Amino acid sequence: MDARPPACIGVFDSGVGGLSVLRALKRRLPDAPLCYLADSAHAPYGELPPSRIVERSDHLTRVLRQQGARLIVVACNTATAVAIDELRRRFPSVPFVGVEPGVKPATLLSARRRIVVLATPATVASLRLRALVARHGSDCRVDLVACPGLADLVEQGLDDARALGDVMATIVQAVRHAEADTVVLGCTHYPFVATELTSALGPDVRLVDTADAVAEQAARLWSELAVPGASPACVPREAPLRLYSSGDGTTLRRMVSQWLGQALEVSAPPALL
Ligand code: DGL
User: Fold this and answer.
1) Residues 6+ apart with CB under 8 A from 244
2) 73 lines ligand 1 (CB under 6 A)
3) Does residue 39 line the site of ligand 1, with CB under 6 A?
4) Does 196 fall in a domain?
5) Residue at 28 is within a domain
6) Is 13 in the pocket of ligand 1 (CB under 6 A)?
7) Does the predicted TM-score (pTM) go above 0.70?
């Protein structure tokens, strides 16, 4: 008997933010089995030293591999910025899809040629983001704005209205100062405050999220892998979604029900063999 776990797409984030990518993946690949791992006990990554982000990303990759992941979506801008090169080096046989701030699509949208990228402190400090801006944003003014605390507020279930209001005020000030008409959501937690951002910034400021582009890239690699039994004809209509959290799972369970419309159990991540 084959004791290997069934093949799936593994998705990880520092916490619940990657659900914004998972939602797009489920829309694009409704038949693909998915395994989502939220490292909420160690969030926010954006305020950790790079070596720790690499260490956590390595660990989560091993857990997902053990759970049958043939393709891994790093549904975290911070882990992508800091750790994806090292993950590709350490796991050369694993295809990884990362998430990067949508600087290029923003340059195509911005009439004023003024863009603000909102991201975690670690992403803003990364060389990878600087290189992305140099590659795609050279004919625009691109301001990188670190938003310490914002991912954590999402992680805590957005219960602290006052702290959220303070972060929004800082963002509004930065966007007005830059005279930007386009704001890039450079952290997967931020789409969950898109409504608050739009009401703070006004309807003329466009928000850019890359979740659909990431899902598209994952779909392309998944079809190239041609995993047996993963074709639409061979799997049940509602493909399985397994959820793991290193935290208590409360926000994850609530957000999966709210954003994906599924009532699912959240388990502790299985120990590595
Ligand atoms: N969701 C992550 C990102 O896209 C990380 C947020 C955090 O843990 O600081 O950057």
Assistant:
1) 35, 36, 37, 38, 63, 266, 267, 268, 269, 270
2) no
3) no
4) yes
5) yes
6) yes
7) yes
